[in-house]
Design a protein that fits this description.
Layout: E1 2-7, H1 14-28, E2 33-38, H2 41-47, E3 57-60, E4 63-67, E5 82-86, H3 93-107, E6 115-119, H4 127-131, E7 135-137, E8 143-147, H5 164-172, H6 175-184, H7 189-196, E9 200-204, H8 212-220, E10 226-231, E11 246-251, H9 256-265, E12 268-272, H10 275-282, E13 287-290, H11 298-307, H12 314-324, H13 337-345, H14 349-364, H15 370-383
Parallel strand pairs: 1-2, 1-5, 2-4, 5-6, 6-8, 9-10, 9-12, 10-11, 12-13
Antiparallel strand pairs: 3-4, 7-8
């Protein structure tokens, strides 16, 4: 199977994060011949060593990577058997023209038209099940199919690589291995000493509006020691709030496998967007998701849809709601963050939250992942053409 995957980098690293994982997964799992079209190679290079931001075309991990530029070109490669646009980013007009020509040939019995997939954003809302894999007939005769990642068997599932749980469990079972990994990221000696002494570890990857100061102030006054791992450039100024009981350790932006390991080292992961959220789910540890903010508070409805499916204690869900409110929001819950955080980290709630995170990981991993479901859907569609 030959496939083209188109990615426009809109939200920093989330778009390319999802697309790069999917491209590798389809190349290494079902064995597809993948072409990944990316418009921002600089963002790509920050999460994947070996990417040349100046290259028009390059190969890595079995994927052919093309710099997607807006200038019209008459030398684009012919479309593959499957064309995937991530998050409704239409392919170039001349590429669609080539797809239309192939569809016309197929109608004459002279070939097979590409399967056009719109890979949608992740959502836990109920309506997603009804729209997953639904066709959309275009006026030019082409058909586009909507493919929704999701949390139920009636959706496209979540991206997950084979063997991920075994690798995760091995690292989480060894505090020494975790310390070695953190040392390799440049975590300083004082932070590593706190880690060895059993400090509670938090990872923090958030949007600028997150109430990070309130988080740090709460953790520095708790009786136990806390270590917060923060990527460079995230929550600037947070370091100034460190104290005797709170260590802040800056870590570099890392390749995706190391980002997974970073999440595995934490007892609680604060994550943002879609890609890091899914990876935190596979960490089988408590997580707090900062959903991408939308005008009018639409994102809070999506947050509540997920929280309705997340089997954590209500106290933990209250913490997620507080984390996603910002000063000035209608019904703001930000002032309640310290109280919600204290309640979620105190027994018996904390133990129940940890157990729920393990159970949720096992439930989500019990069926095929998004790449396998996508490959199965496309194979079935080709049989009918």
């Amino acid at each position: 199977m030959r496939a083209d995957l188109f990615c426009r980098v809109v939200d920093n690293y989330g778009d390319i994060g999802v697309c790069w994982r999917l491209a590798r997964r389809l190349a290494q799992g079902p064995g597809w011949r993948m072409r990944l079209w990316v418009d921002d190679l600089h963002a790509f290079a920050r999460i994947q060593p070996g990417i040349d931001p100046a290259a028009a075309r390059q190969q890595l991990a079995g994927v052919d990577i093309i710099h997607w530029q807006d200038e019209a070109s008459s030398t684009l490669p012919a479309p593959g058997d499957v064309v995937i646009e991530a998050f409704a980013c239409d392919p170039p007009a001349e590429f669609i023209d080539a797809m239309r020509a192939l569809a016309a040939e197929s109608a004459r019995g002279e070939g097979v038209a590409p399967i056009w997939i719109n890979l949608e954003y992740l959502s836990a809302e109920d309506w997603v099940e009804g729209f997953h894999t639904m066709p959309s007939q275009r006026a030019d005769g082409l058909v586009k199919y909507f493919f929704f990642p999701g949390f139920t068997p009636a959706t496209g599932g979540l991206l997950r690589e084979p063997g991920l749980a075994a690798e995760r469990d091995a690292l989480q079972a060894s505090r020494e291995s975790q310390s070695d990994f953190l040392r390799g990221l440049g975590v300083d000696a004082a932070a590593l000493a706190a880690h060895r002494r059993g400090a509670r570890v938090l990872s923090l990857f958030c949007y600028p509006r997150a109430p990070t100061d309130a988080l740090a102030q709460t953790m520095r006054h708790r009786p136990e020691s806390t270590l917060i791992l923060v990527p460079e450039g995230i929550a600037p100024g947070l370091d100034e709030l460190a104290g005797d009981a709170l260590r802040i350790a800056r870590v570099p932006f890392v390749a995706q496998p190391d980002f997974d390991r970073l999440l595995w080292c934490a007892d609680l992961n604060f994550v943002r967007g879609e890609d890091s959220f899914v990876r935190a789910a596979w960490a089988a540890r408590p997580l707090v998701w900062q959903i991408y903010p939308q005008h009018g508070g639409t994102h809070l409805e999506k947050l509540d849809a997920w929280l309705a499916r997340y089997p954590a204690p209500e106290t933990a869900r209250a913490l997620a709601r507080a984390w996603n409110q910002a000063p000035g929001d209608q019904g703001t819950a930000t002032p309640d963050l310290p109280q919600a955080l204290e309640a979620a980290l105190t027994e018996p709630v904390w133990g129940a939250w940890q157990a729920a995170a393990h159970a949720w990981d096992a439930e989500l991993a019990s069926g095929p992942d998004l790449a396998d479901k996508l490959a199965t859907f496309c194979a079935e569609m080709l049989k009918t053409r």
